[in-house]
Structures are given as C-alpha cells and as structure tokens.
What does this fold into?
Amino acid sequence: YSLFTIPTVWLPWVVALVGVEFLYYWWHRLSHEVNILWAAHVVHHHSEDYNLAVALRQSVTTWFTSLIFYLPLALVGVPVFHFAVILGLMVVPIQIVRNHMPTRLSR
It folds into this structure.
C-alpha cells in the first residue's frame, strides 16, 4: 500500500536511516513542546539521575504517538524490516550520547 517502490538493494537502508533519524528528531522535539505528546513522553524524565534504564522507560502510549510520525516512511515504501532494524540500532548511540557514560576521554 505504499505510494512508491524503492527499487535498489541499498536505497531502502539509506531512506530508512535518514527517515528514522529525521522523524525521531521531530517526534522527540515535539514531545517536549506539545502537551499531549509530553504526557506520553514525560515518564522517562521523572528521575534525578538519567541513565540507560530511565532512558528506555517509556509510556504505554509512546508507541502510538511515535507511530504517527513514522507513517511517512511506510508511504514512501520503506520495508518494515528495514525500519525496525534501523530504529532498534538507533537507540544505542542515542543513549550513549545522552547519558553520562564514563569513557577514557572523560577523565
């Protein structure tokens, strides 16, 4: 039911990577600015210390509020498998950057 079919082998990965990253940014940014989105997002901001466990804590409505933002990827023909892999892999680097994880460079 997509509007387009992405023809090559590598192009769906590129479209998924750029699309998920772009749409995640806007979902997260608007989740801090729009009340209904904030209501779903605030649960992972209720802690004195921000760590991986807190970062992965999500509201039961987060899947629905984020799904609305990711629908354009389905319309342009990004396969569900590509979307799921990219979204899953994207969580790790985001949390490493956002958390205060000790590294050799931070000494």
Q: What stands out?
A: The chain has a mean pLDDT of 80. The chain is about 60% helix and 0% strand.
